[in-house]
Specification:
This protein is α+β, with helices and mostly antiparallel strands and about 1200 residues long. Helix content is about 50%, strand content about 10%. It has 42 helices and 27 strands.
């Protein structure tokens, strides 16, 4: 009998709480047995002063409470209590003692509770006065604990690992997963009487200030990074994240960066103090390589000059020829085929997962198309079930109440309880008691163990398909195996899939379409339903693409308008119509689009399918490359002065001879880089690289032909005043504002003596940071990103990870050729009596026991073991008609039906040889029923591939389930673990076995994505290096600088991906390959302008290159793409916002800053010396002309 404590004593038959004075004990010694935990005892109430500890307990006190000094060892516990404490804390200590600080803090919590001489300051007890006055039991206690102590203890223990389970220790000691455990609910669980260790209720109160007259226990705690006074060191990095210190890569890169700055600034200061200029000596005695480079440069100049002159003289011929070729190429679009099948997009036909999928599909048929409902309820009215037999009450969550289940049956008539409202309402009762109702099915779950439940209801437990419905598949949101606590029902509709039958597949897709339409319109106040069908993701991606068309069109429209207006160089308002180049800009845009359509058409002729990535990305890429070249040609012409006696076609030819090698350098580098990217095994990357490479080639050819002809026509128009062509205009050429800014302000500023070291320090710092975090970029693709913001599938994904307890099915497939008719062959596979301990079934079973590590969740279903049980002569399953020899189902009542095998010694053995194959087809055709639950048709009809007219067993599979998989790393780990297990089984059986699950084909790419990324980007950089070396006239060092700058851009892209939560996957890999190509545009023009400059110093040459090419790069590719990219931020598509807006913006910003800031500074320090042969040739070429003074800038 319990009662609140009072100041005055009352009758011993009443309860009371006793508020003790300060520094008194509240208990001492042990009394009667605990009612809740019978093998433990209550503590005895005692309100006197602390008592000296017996000598035999000194060592035990030191062991349990290290570092706690109680002076004369006068404490509030005896040896028996210390022994009980030690026994109760064995489990926590086994897991937490690996971290000394955590162990110390935990023991402080319990030692202060059990033995502190100051107990009365922070403990308030409830005592049971029933019995004598000398053995009153303390049956409950309030323990006032400081919040600071609580948080410190949790922080010291939260990272401690449990290696045997591959989880954090708190997952085993908190009553829930460590991710849901916190400082307070952990202590509450430790003191919960239901944990089986606490003999009486302990109610912790958390506060740092006095509460209800008690001073909370707030003893000193150790951080997990601290060592203890007894010499114990800090916790390991594995058990204490704070003890890991800085990330190793970050430390290395920080030290490297600091070392670089020290050396770099030392060299800069030394060079500034002691430099000597001997520039003119560079121009004496050109080397052979320099002469060879000059000849190559001159040859390209002459070829492009002649070609440019031809295009201007015969514009109609050139334009007509280009139109014909573009038309013929684009005509291939009539054969265009767009691939949206994710398997075709992301899995190579030669990949392991793809081969295994094809094998599975060809032998067992394609995996089911699945539609699924996850049903929850907003209603919160749980029920308490009171069993008829004595026992504790059982709570049932609202989703399992009868009213909700009736509503679920109304929604989906074919679910459970044999699809019957009547069956759900059945009860077994008499006039006094209800013996059984539907609760029994959920609580005792007889339906998973038998064909007829063992309650008084005797309901048939098989589903209508002939097999059982397992609770871990049909329910969700429960803990452990307490299915009565389920908060969700999961209903799955498997639909037959058809690989080649388009008509039947179309019917399945039509059913799914109607299913989705119905569920979208379904509404019920008591049910919340999330749903998905096989076609849902593809449908939502298509809808997303349609909704983003307007965003994409607006993005391109802004870029087109900018190009059309920015190409003009308007000198005055009255010459707007004369100087504007709207028509030329539109023509340039049409050339870009023509190159894209020609590339698509040519590959369509050869039957290469398109992907949405190609359609969305390649126009962006080619527009970037094409616009840059267009601006370079037009702006160079606008700044050029025609030489005396030089005609227009000669002038444009000369200009093309100057700039076309630079255009050829960038375009050819990109083309080779993209074509090398086509070596990738990933179909999406390979096809993108092929289409992009060809589109860039066609774009370059159209620019140096069709666009040059159009430029000549526009120039002739502009030279006629007021568009009347009555007199020739002799306007003086003037430089544009942007060029003037770059020439007079920007370039001189960036290349100042004090600015250049800062630029190097900043960019090398960015590089160091990116290298430090490159290994932290996540791998995978969150499928939620592929859905629109308003997609119903997002709710399904959320509930899938929140409620489901079972992952996808996994099949261990034994390829054909294994001999199941022999005893050795059977023992290598089966899991019953006489089977090998390392058989397939035994190994999968052993893996399921370590599900947290292996991700194999359950024991596999074994058709072979069930077949052996089915065919036993004692079984009523296998019977044949004695006269016809036909199979008799167990439900058939016919005296002619006799057991398949005789009750002899041989008959009791497993069937072998011909016997094995004789009865196996019967087993696979037999439906389970209450008289025979081992029929194999429901579970194994597709698991065994019978060949040679049912005379041999071909390929077979053994199915189990993965554990619940939520994120991309979970799926990748599951794939790796299943394959490792399959390899072990193959080695043991000496026969090929592979693991197959429906998601493997999508996640296999992530096993090699890092290698594929490194290979693709390295090949692209190698191609750029080789092409740049050759086309710059064998300027090896210049090619090195270009390649290094592009490599810096790529590494910095990984830094941005980490900062912006962009994962590495096929989509981002395509963007990185594109980044490699676009970066050439930002770098190659600047470097080539530097190599052909004839200025006297590297700084002057870098300044000239930045002034002349920088303005075109900035106004061309940078501003054009920047305006279009910003519009992508308006997209409703998450994948557009992440992988296109964020990555495109990063590509442009990093490319522009490296090309227009870092690269000129790098050239001013490390650029190659002037090519003396090119200097002599330039002086000779322009001697005696108006351009001679321009050599001196």
């Amino acid at each position: 009998i319990l009662e609140k404590p009072r100041v005055h004593p009352v009758s011993k038959y009443m309860l009371f709480f006793f508020q003790v004075a300060a520094d008194h004990c509240v208990w001492y010694g042990e009394c009667g047995p605990s009612k809740q935990v019978p093998d433990k005892k209550y503590n005895c109430n005692y309100t006197g002063p602390p008592k000296p500890l017996e000598a035999e307990g000194h060592e035990l006190l030191t062991e349990l409470c290290p570092g706690l000094d109680y002076g004369d060892r006068a404490i509030c516990c005896d040896v028996a209590q210390l022994r009980t404490l030690k026994g109760s804390l064995q489990l926590p200590l086994q897991f937490l003692s690996r971290c000394p600080a955590c162990y110390f803090n935990l023991m402080t919590l319990f030692c202060e509770l059990t033995c502190s001489p100051h107990q009365s300051q922070f403990m308030n007890t409830t005592i049971d006065t029933k019995g004598t006055t000398i053995d009153k039991n303390v049956v409950a206690v309030q323990y006032y604990i400081g919040q600071t102590f609580t948080d410190a203890m949790y922080n010291a223990c939260k990272d401690v690992q449990a290696p045997s389970s591959n989880v954090k220790a708190l997952s085993l000691l908190c009553g829930k997963d460590a991710s849901q455990c916190n400082a307070t609910n952990w202590i509450q669980y430790l003191f919960d009487i239901n944990n089986g260790q606490t003999p009486f209720a302990i109610d912790p109160k958390f506060s740092d200030v006095p509460l209800s007259g008690f001073n909370p226990m707030n003893n000193y705690t150790f951080n997990c990074t601290e060592g203890l006074d007894d010499g114990s060191g800090p916790c390991s990095c594995q058990d204490c994240a704070a003890a890991c210190g800085l990330d190793g890569m970050c430390v290395v890169m920080w030290l490297s960066y600091m070392s670089f700055l020290l050396v770099f600034f030392g060299i800069v200061i030394g060079a500034w103090c002691f430099r000597r200029r001997t520039i003119m000596s560079e121009y004496v005695n050109a080397s052979y390589c320099e002469r060879l480079g000059e000849r190559f440069e001159n040859a390209m100049r002459e070829v492009f000059s002649s070609w440019g002159s031809f295009c201007v003289r015969y514009p109609l011929l050139v334009i007509l020829g280009c139109i014909i070729l573009v038309g013929l190429s684009s005509a291939g679009l009539v054969y265009m085929r767009i691939t949206t099948d994710p398997v075709e997009l992301w899995s190579s036909p030669s990949s392991q997962a793809r081969r295994e999928k094809d094998y599975f599909d060809s032998h067992f048929g394609p995996f089911f198309r699945t539609a699924q409902l996850i049903i929850t309820t907003p209603v919160n009215h749980p029920e308490i079930y009171k069993p008829y037999f004595p026992g504790p009450d059982v709570p049932f969550n609202t989703i399992l109440t009868k009213a909700i289940l009736h509503e679920v049956l109304d929604l989906v008539p074919q679910t459970t309880f044999q699809n019957s409202h009547t069956q759900l309402d059945r009860i077994a009762e008499d006039e006094f008691f209800v013996f059984a109702d539907y609760h029994m099915v959920f609580f005792f779950l007889q339906c998973t163990a038998s064909l007829n439940d063992t309650t008084q209801l005797h309901d048939p437990c098989l589903g209508t398909y002939g097999g059982p419905v397992f609770p871990w598949l049909a329910m969700g949101g429960y803990d452990g195996t307490n299915y009565n606590n389920a908060t969700a029902l999961v209903i799955t509709f498997p639909l037959n899939n058809y690989k080649d039958d388009i008509v039947k597949k179309g019917k399945a897709m039509a059913w799914e379409k109607e299913f989705i339409r119905f569920m979208k319109n379904y509404s019920h106040p008591n049910l919340t339903v999330s749903f998905s069908a096989e076609r849902s993701i593809e449908d939502e991606i298509d809808r997303e693409s349609d909704s983003d068309i307007s965003t994409i069109i607006l993005s391109y429209a802004i870029m087109f308008i900018y190009i059309s207006l920015a190409l003009g160089h308007i000198e005055s308002c009255r010459r707007v119509l004369v100087d504007s180049k709207i028509s030329l800009g539109i023509a340039g845009i049409l050339i870009v689009l023509s190159s894209v359509s020609s590339s698509l058409g040519i590959f369509s002729y050869f039957g290469v399918p398109l992907t949405l990535i190609i359609i969305e990305v390649i126009p962006f890429l080619v527009l970037a490359v094409g616009v840059d070249n267009i601006f370079i040609v037009v702006q160079t012409y606008q700044r050029d002065e025609r030489l005396p006696d030089e005609e227009l076609h000669q002038q444009i030819g000369r200009i093309l001879g100057d700039v076309a090698p630079s255009m050829f350098l960038s375009s050819f580098s990109e083309t080779v880089a993209f074509f090398l990217g086509a070596l990738s095994n990933m179909p999406a990357v390979r096809t993108f690289s092929m289409f992009a490479g060809l589109a860039v080639v066609i774009d370059f050819l159209l620019q140096i032909s069709c666009f040059v002809s159009l430029l000549g026509l526009d120039a002739k128009r502009q030279e006629c005043d007021d568009m009347a062509c009555f007199q020739k205009g002799n306007q003086t050429k003037t430089d544009g504002c942007l060029f003037q800014f770059f020439k007079k302000v920007y370039a001189p500023f960036v290349l100042k003596e004090w600015v250049r070291p800062i630029v190097v320090a900043v960019f090398v710092g960015m590089l160091s940071f990116s290298i430090a975090v490159v290994n932290k970029v996540e791998v995978g693709l969150d499928q939620k990103l592929s859905m629109p913001d308003d997609s119903y599938v997002l709710d399904y994904f959320k509930n899938l990870s929140e409620y489901l307890h079972t992952g996808a099915p996994v099949y261990f497939v034994i390829e054909d050729g294994h001999n199941y008719s022999s005893l050795e062959g059977q023992n290598a596979v089966c899991g019953g009596v006489g089977c090998n301990n390392d058989s397939l079934v035994q190994q999968v079973y052993a893996a399921s026991l370590l599900s947290n590590y292996t991700t194999i969740g359950f024991t596999p279903s074994s058709w072979l073991d069930d077949y052996f049980d089915w065919v036993k002569p004692r079984s009523t399953c296998c019977r044949v008609n004695n006269s016809t020899g036909l199979f008799c189902n167990a439900s058939v009542v016919d005296p002619l039906c006799v057991p398949c095998r005789d009750m002899t010694a041989e008959g009791k053995m497993r069937p072998q040889g011909d016997d094995f194959m004789h009865f196996l087809p019967m087993f696979l055709s037999d439906n389970p029923n209450p008289k025979c639950g081992k029929g194999g048709h429901a579970a194994y009809a597709s698991a065994v591939d019978l060949i040679d007219n049912n005379t041999h067993v071909g390929a077979t599979y053994f199915m189990t389930y993965h554990t619940i998989l939520k994120e991309s790393p979970d799926f990748v780990d599951a794939l790796k673990m299943a394959r490792a297990l399959a390899r072990n089984i193959s080695t043991t059986m000496d026969h090929n076995v592979f693991a197959y699950s429906v998601f493997y084909v999508f996640y296999e790419q992530y096993l090699t994505i890092i290698y594929d990324t490194a290979l693709n980007l390295c090949l692209s950089l190698l191609a750029i290096f080789v092409v740049t070396t050759v086309l710059l006239g064998f300027e090896l060092w210049s090619a090195v600088l270009v390649s290094c700058t592009i490599a810096m851009i790529l590494v910095n892209m990984f830094g941005v991906m980490w900062l912006w939560d962009i994962s590495l996957n096929a989509v981002s890999l395509v963007n990185l390959v594109m980044c490699c190509g676009i970066s050439v545009e930002f770098c190659s023009h600047i470097v080539r302008a530097f190599t052909v400059s004839v200025k006297s110093t590297r700084v002057e040459r870098a300044e000239e290159a930045l002034a002349h090419m920088g303005s075109s790069v900035f106004s061309g590719i940078t501003l054009t793409k920047f305006g279009g990219i910003l519009i992508l931020a308006l997209s409703k598509s998450q994948i557009f916002q992440v992988f296109y807006f964020r990555m495109y913006l990063a590509i442009v910003l990093l490319g522009a800053t490296h090309g227009l800031i870092f690269l000129p500074v790098l050239l001013s320090y490390l650029g190659p010396s002037a090519n003396r042969a090119k200097v002599f040739a330039a002086n000779k070429r322009f001697a005696g002309t108006e351009r001679e003074p321009l050599l001196n800038y």
